[in-house]
Amino acid sequence: MDERRLGLREAALELQALLGRATVERMGGGTNAVWMSGGWDSTAVFAAGQQALPPAERSRLRPVSISYPEGDLGCEDEFIRQVSTRWGTDTHWIQSDAIPLLDGLEERAALADEPPTHLYELWNRELARGARAIGARVALDGCGGDNLFQVSDVVLADLLRTGHLIEFARLARSRRRAGWKYLARAGVLPLVPDAVLRAGELVAGRRIPRHYMEHPAAPWMRPEFVATHGLRDRALATLRSTRGASLAQTENMLYVSAPAWSWAGGYMRGVLLQEGVEARSPLLDRRVVEFALARPVAERTDGAETKILLRRAMAGLLPESVLAPLAPDGKHRRVLAAPDARGISGAAPAAFLTAAPPGRVGHRGSVRTQGSCGPLDDEWR
């Protein structure tokens, strides 16, 4: 089958079937948890699995979700309830304000093989304990949905590169609130040769972005350390290691293959195994990945909506209110539920100084020892 020749309706039905098979194949015996938010990815996994299972076995798939206080930006409880009601199941709830953020940081760092940690580690540990509470040893998640079924506004650069100036102007106009710097970074920077950007840095005498996805080094890292070890060039090499048929296609391929994703996934799965739960990701099934990447970029975003193909695949399986596109201001839904910022801002700098005082890390030459907490305070604010 040539996935590219299917119309949107046929492609949606094929994706629904592929995701259903991928979900059922990843289920363990007995009860299985689905870590479900109110977004489009984990709900798609749950609904596709329910549709693919025989009716008598659908009770084996149960949602485990984090509940946020009403009015909190992360609160998607109503969407989750609607999905559960649609399939006649109940949700095992975990209260967000009962989840610690940085508890046991030193103890966990002492057991880790590498310095980085994961911001959502304790969130995921609580989800694993929730899975165990309902008798599940396997938990299915929605990882892969963002990587495969949406794309950034780098489509602006693709439109400009291919001479679709009217479409470029229309999309740029819809993004005008983001400011001209954002539009230049997304729509123009990806088209500028690196040699020109290097020359611009020499003329300006300062660092300028050389890739639209590039992030500057953390402000508490020594510039000499960053330069000596070529951290910037190594990061840029990774960002340029993949090439697709378009800039948007390249971005999606990179989001699937970049080392940061495999590191984060491996780290978190190791953590979850400590809790006695194995996490599995149906959306990253090879058949789903290959099918999604073969589809037109226009099914990932049309300028006004995202995840068009995935949402169309769930038509009839999820409530229309859940599948509804984001409002123009993006405020009536929130796909990513974040930890409580109040807990972060108060705990992070103190935890950093406790776990890694300047005398312990400064001598290694990677961290600023004078005023090293100041930038951290700014970052967490």
Helices and strands in order:
Elements: H1 8-26, E1 32-35, H2 41-52, E2 61-67, H3 77-86, E3 92-95, H4 105-111, H5 121-133, E4 138-140, H6 145-149, H7 155-161, H8 165-174, H9 180-187, H10 194-204, H11 223-228, H12 231-239, H13 247-257, H14 259-274, E5 278-280, H15 286-294, H16 308-313, H17 320-323, H18 341-355, H19 358-361, H20 373-380
Parallel strand pairs: 1-2, 1-4, 2-3, 4-5
How would you describe this protein?
The chain has 381 residues and is mainly alpha-helical. Among the domains are: 3-150 and 250-323, Rossmann fold; 340-381, no CATH class. It has 20 helices and five strands. The protein has a five-stranded parallel β-sheet with strand order 3-2-1-4-5, with helices on both faces. Strand 1 (32-35), helix 2 (41-52) and strand 2 (61-67) form a beta-alpha-beta unit. The model has no long low-confidence stretch (mean pLDDT 87).
- CATH fold-level topology of the domain at 3-150 and 250-323: Rossmann fold
Strand order in the sheet with the most strands: 3-2-1-4-5
Sketch the topology as an H/E string, one letter per element. HEHEHEHHEHHHHHHHHHEHHHHHH
The total count of strands amounts to: 5
So what's the overall shape?
A: globular
How much of the sequence lies in strands comes to 5-15%
Q: What structural class results from the helix and strand content?
A: mainly alpha
How does the major sheet shape up?
Answer: 5 strands, parallel
- What's the CATH C level of the domain at 3-150 and 250-323? Alpha Beta
Radius of gyration: 22 Å
Mean pLDDT across every amino acid position: 87
Q: Mind telling me the CATH superfamily name of the domain at 3-150 and 250-323?
A: HUPs
Terminal-residue CA separation: 51 Å
User: Which architecture name of the domain at 3-150 and 250-323 does CATH use?
Assistant: 3-Layer(aba) Sandwich
Q: What are the low-pLDDT stretches, counting only 5+ consecutive residues below 50? A: none
